[in-house]
Request: fold
Amino acid sequence: MNAIPAELLHIVIGLVAVAASVGLIGLVMVWVERKVAGHIQRRPGPFEVGPSGVLQPLCDALKLVGKQLFMPLGADPILFWLAPVLAFLPVLLLFLPLPVGDGLQALDVNLGLLLILAFSGLAVLSVLLAGWASNNKYGLLGAARGVAQSVAYEIPLLLSVLSVSFVAGSLNLATVVEGQGTWPWNWNIMTQPLAFLIYFVSAFGETNRAPFDLPEAESELTAGFHTEYSGMGFGLFFLAEYANMVVVCAVATALFLGGWHGPVLPGPVWFVLKVSSLMLLMVFARWTFPRVRFDQLLNINWKWLLPLAVANLLLTAFFVKLAQFA
Amino acid sequence: MTVVKVMMKEALQTVSDLWSLMVGLNVTKRYFLEPQITVRYPWKEVHNLATFKGHLELVSSKTPGKGKCISCGMCAMACPSNCLTVVKRKAPKPTPEEEQALAEAKAKGEKPKDKTPKDPEKFLYDYTLCSLCGTCMENCPVGALDFTGSAYLAGYTREDFHFDLVQVLKNQAGLEGVDETAAPGAGQSEG
Reply:
């Protein structure tokens, strides 16, 4: 038994659990998204396969797996196939430091927040590679948009996260959660409402979700950076998008909404409840707001989110320092 | 001072813009909770089927199996999709007595009376082309055409939608020469 270090076993079990749950979340989210879209437009959404159409995403996934993988003429084969893998693999890593419950964490590291932020930055690279390697004008345009957008929105995201970790005095997500209380007025969102708003808006930009879905903008760029991907190549991008949504919402829950804290119900249930309600909000936002123009997108970021995030961070730092003297 | 004013105005505008996002979310939430208006067709049918248009049919006259149609061809002429073909009846071969009467009438200088029956021999209707515009009905001098209510008509081949409306009328009346292949599905699928 001594041959396998306990830490390694811990991580492997965590990774397997994460991989399984990412697949499940992908399936559930596809169904939820289509159902919500349908009901908002006053139609039923999928309802033919299984009760209320719950098996529809499973059939879609099987179809995607069974499809032939095409590569356009003149594409760069290595980069072309690297991109979807690169989009999906870091996402699995992002789940490791998330505190789902009290002590329920795949990887307990001091710099969990930093790990998430650093590896979510790799998503930009996959968008760039996909768009560049597919030898397609729409792909390239989508990639250019994606890079400009993700790089811009990462800054206010980081700054708003930083102001929370200033207050908590830690980059460990579990410590941040422990610093918050059971009831909503004990959560960080009460002390950092502006940071939460900035984080959530930037999260839309980071995950390329509507109304900030300019890299894929189906009405302008067919499918943007993943135009040329068929079958599971597209499937991986798709799965990565939903997994990224989950990570972003989970981090928001841990940082601002008290993580697994909550009355009566056990911790993990609260965590899942909070994450799912944020996800539902993101889905609702997609079917409510029209896509912004690219200059508007960057204006929101550089003229509003960034100055506000900096001001919020400075104010937070000031009060944290003040509290130390008091 | 003006700079402060402008900044204040900008900030207030932003707040009201943010509020408009909330209003938008509320609209979609309301629609989300409202009942759906889609009718799940194979399992359910619309309740106001009577207001739906189906394919054309010949209006029956008092004698069952006979239409009001006088084979004038106005409908075929007016049809923008060219989906109607009216085949007129040929004049019946006169019997020897009739021929004699005809010759006598000619000798007297009278105009011979056309004994050809006016009802069409065939009334070919290609439903695959028809756009249900109703121009044929408007142009019919005797009101011989009408829409059926069979909005849910379905078939396996294109030929299923090529009707001979005269035959359809006969089938409906249950008369002689019932030819099932002439118009499968016609007169069904109501209700």
Q: What stands out?
A: Chain A is about 70% helix and 0% strand. Chain A has one domain: 6-325.
